[in-house]
Amino acid sequence: MAIRLSGMASGLDTDSIVQALVSSYSYKKSKYEKAQTKLGWTQEAWKSLNTKVYSLYSNVSNLRFSTAYSLKKTSVSDSTKASVKAGSSAPNGTQTLKITNTAKAGYLTGEQINASSSSTTLAQLGYTGGDAKINVNTKDGTKSITLSATSTMSDVEKQLKEAGLNASYDSTYKRFYISAKDTGADNDFTLTGANTGGATALYKLGIAVGTSTSNPYSQYDSLYGGSDAATQQKIENAVAAYKSSSSNIEKYTAQSNNLLNAITYGTAYADVKDFYSSLSGTKTESGADIDTAKLETLAKLGSGRDSAIITKNSDGTYTTYSKTTAKDADGNTVYKSEDGKYISAEERYTNGGKTYKKNSDGTYVNVSDENDKYSGDTADLTKTVTYKKVSESKSYVSGSDADTKTYTKNSDDTYTCDGKTYTKRDDGKYYAEGEAADSKNGVTITEKVEYTSSTEIRDAEAAADAYKDITKNIDEKALSTYSSNLSTVTAFESTKDTSLTSSDKYTIAGLTSDIHDAYNKGGKDAVSNLIAGNGTDSDAYAAKVAALTTSISSEQTKLDANKLVKELAAIKDTTSSEYQTALKNMVETVNSAHDLSSNAQYNTKAKKVDGEDAEIWLNGVQYTGSSSTFTINNLTIDALDTTGNDEISITTSTDTQGIYDKVKDFLTEYNNIINEMTKLYNASSSKGYEPLTDDEKDSMSDKEIEKWETKIKDSLLRNDSTLNGVMSAMTSAMSQAVEIDGKKYSLSSFGIHTLGYLNAADNEQNAYHIDGDEDDTNTSGNADKLMKAISEDPDTIMQFMQKVATNLYTAIGDKMKATSLSSSFTIYNDKQMTTQYSDYTKLIKEWETKISDKEDYYYKKFSSMESALTKLNSTQSSLSGYFS
User: Taking the CB of the first residue and of the last residue of the chain, which one, N or C, has fewer CB atoms within 10 A?
Assistant: First the structure.
């Protein structure tokens, strides 16, 4: 940088002169700074608008499905007894409800004891024994706590909580209050002494519940044999009985579930087969007879059709292949087949013995002679799709720059490299065995997949295109019902039996075969008879389920009689030390219980309320549960109080107001966004207004600056072509007519319309209003056609709104697709703007450099002039001295 002397000899305002000389450069820089500022404001405006449009897009996505409008409401004749919520699939109508019991938690109120505070010890209550072992018995098993003479009331409270109970000692009333964590009989608890000390401690604490004739220790009487060997044998017999009942219950339950599912499956299977029969003579879009084997394969793919291809086998079946994001050796997108190999698509067209490939510009060229261009009617070309199979090679490599070795994966998810075994730790990295816990030598191991092209497979086709071709001429409702039935069929047939063997009755395979045989012999009627019988048929599935239910109940009774050995029975290896220790402890527990059964003391003033299940009767059918909340056939019932022998009614109906509000909320959100877009597009011009420089801001007040900048910001998207394109797509989607059962409808069919340019408020000409909407002053006086339509024909409204939502969703989605100028889910060219902003930053820096260089140039010139003038003045002073 040049030395900057500011007029010391000349008296000139050098700085001002230099700034004037470089003003043209400064103007350029200022121009780019203002343009960048304006671009930044534009980015912010678009981001804000994009967020709102994306929110609408996400919300509209849900409105494309019937579940969004399947709203129900319920009323209960006595809301003090129950509250009820209806799910979307709850049936309309009135049902009866009787509540005979609400769920209760087990609760123990202790007898008053002489413990003045939570720090009082058991010794102060008179306990002088050694370790007092107490069993806390809950549905999770038995947990043992150990107290001593020095244990305080706080210690007792703490240990009971750790064992899974709610417990507190109240020093005011000098009692323990203990309860189960949850309601229901299965969640109840008991407290028993595991030894004499434990029984005595319970008595001293005032929480020993029982009597000499009815005590908690008598439950073990059936296991007592008079000697350790005899007691052990009785325990082992009980374990064997418990396991047998458990196994039978598991088996019977699996068989019952299979039969119940087969009832649904059988009906769905018959409907699917009938549907195929109904397609006889139906043509595909391309004019061929419908191939039902192909349709079934495609339908089973479901949402996976968009990423799948199929090929036909010689036996008339089809093989499916699903896409992956992998690339083959040539960089082509590849597909993964069921056998683990990969194939990539290649299209060829034949005509007149020549084979052509399609160019990116839509022309065709002979693959053996690029100068031979096809120029005839493209309809004459026969398309053949070929897929290359490729082999797959996997390896595992470290992601660290310092270590790029190859690792071998082991069956236990460890890796081996250079003779060392690497194991994954909590930080997600792998460490060699022997590495210290605080070692930093972990490596990140990733999977690397390589593909090599090999053989080819021909005549495959895109599953999505094939499905569209087949289903184009099929009735939409029939197709929807078929798809639902096929999902049921596929789910049942693909289920694997885990509790049943091939020799057991009612396996998935056996039931499937029976239903197929029945249909082949007598069609849907034969399947129905197999499922329901004639009311007395014991071979019908319904009767078999009833018989299994009885068997399960019988085995459950046996299981309950032997539940004392539940934990022992859970140990599978009866030769293990764990089992032998548990068996020994069980013998000691039984012997101790026998001794305590006649010798233990009980607190007669302690009160125990047992846990109880809730019991309700819905439409005359009994339901029980540990909670007072029941979910039955899409009704959620909260039992609040018993009704005795009386019944209350539950009335469920379509929530017409809820559907109306759903439509209104959707339109409100749409209106807010389309009005904002319209306002931005029609904004007043800000011609003559540019972002302010710092110098310009210094001469203005804060309010003036804000007003100036607001003027510019409001007009940033004025007449913007991108914004206009989004608006046009949205308004077109909303105004588009849709067809339902052969009849066309639009929003205006249901009293939903815009007010038009003459009647609408400024920038609201695209907003929709609902006739009869009490919140809308423009249309509140009109007849309410929307609510009338919802009340009279909700299905049509739901189908119509689904299609409107789908049209809008598609329109917005198309505008949000990624391009070279924009990212996914953005309606504006965000990538382009980011690049432009970066370019402005570079330009500004370049002009800053130019200004600096130019200033240095001029300052250097002025410095030379100042130096020369200084020398001249010095010489003149010297000469004057000589003549003075």
Answer: C
Are 349 and 357 in contact by the 8 Å Cβ rule? The answer is: yes
Average pLDDT, the chain: 87
Residue 845 parent element (H or E)? helix 830-883
CB 265, CB 613: distance < 8 Å: no
Helix, strand, coil shares of the chain, percent, nearest 5, are: 45, 20, 35
Q: Is 177 helix (H, G, I), strand (E, B) or coil?
A: strand
Q: Give the full edge-to-edge strand order of the sheet including 175-179.
A: 166-170, 175-179, 107-109, 607-609
Cα dist from 276 to 320, 469, 479, 513, whole Å:
21, 16, 11, 19
List of E strands, 58-163 = 72-76, 82-86, 93-101, 107-109, 132-138, 141-147
Beta strands in 122-236 (DSSP E): 132-138, 141-147, 166-170, 175-179, 190-193
666 C-beta neighbours (distance < 10 Å), count: 20
Residue 680: which of 763, 754, 756 has the closest Cα? 763
- For 197, 244, 633, 665, 666, the CA distances from 794, given in Å and listed in that order, are 71, 54, 21, 17, 17
**How far is residue 75's CA from residue 652's CA, in Å, rounded to a whole number?**
7
pLDDT at 489: 92
Say how far apart CA 8 and CA 3 lie, in whole Å.
13
pLDDT of 442: 86
CA dihedral 858, 863, 865, 869 (to 10 degrees): 160
Report which of 199, 198, 166, 159 is spatially closest to residue 183, judged by C-alpha positions. Answer: 166
Q: pLDDT digit string (tens) for 583-627?
A: 998 998 898 889 888 888 999 999 999 999 999 999 999 999 999
Q: Which of 412, 402, 393, 449 is nearest to 422 (CA)?
A: 412
Measured CA to CA, the distance from residue 674 to residue 681 in angstroms comes to: 10
Contacts 24+ apart (CB under 8 A), 353-357: 356/381
Q: Give the C-alpha separation, 33 to 41, whole Å.
A: 12
Which residue type is seen at 307? S
Burial label for 460, CB within 10 Å (0-12, 13-18, 19+), is buried
Question: Measured between alpha carbons, how far is 553 from 641 in angstroms, rounded to an integer?
Answer: 29
DSSP letters for 532-600: HTTSS-TTSHHHHHHHHHHHHHHHHHHHHHTGGGHHHHT---TTSHHHHHHHHHHHHHHHHHHHHHHH-
Find tokens 């548990």 and name the residue.
582
Compute CA distances 396 → 413, 416, 426, 443, 698, whole Å. Answer: 12, 10, 20, 12, 63
pLDDT band at 421; cut points 50, 70, 90:
very high
User: What is the rounded distance in angstroms from the CA atom of residue 572 to the CA atom of residue 578?
Assistant: 10
Q: What are 172-193's pLDDT values in tens digits?
A: 999 999 999 999 999 999 999 9
Residue 631: per-residue pLDDT:
94
158, 235, 160, 213: which is closest to 190 by C-alpha? Answer: 160
Tokens 């009938």 locate to 274
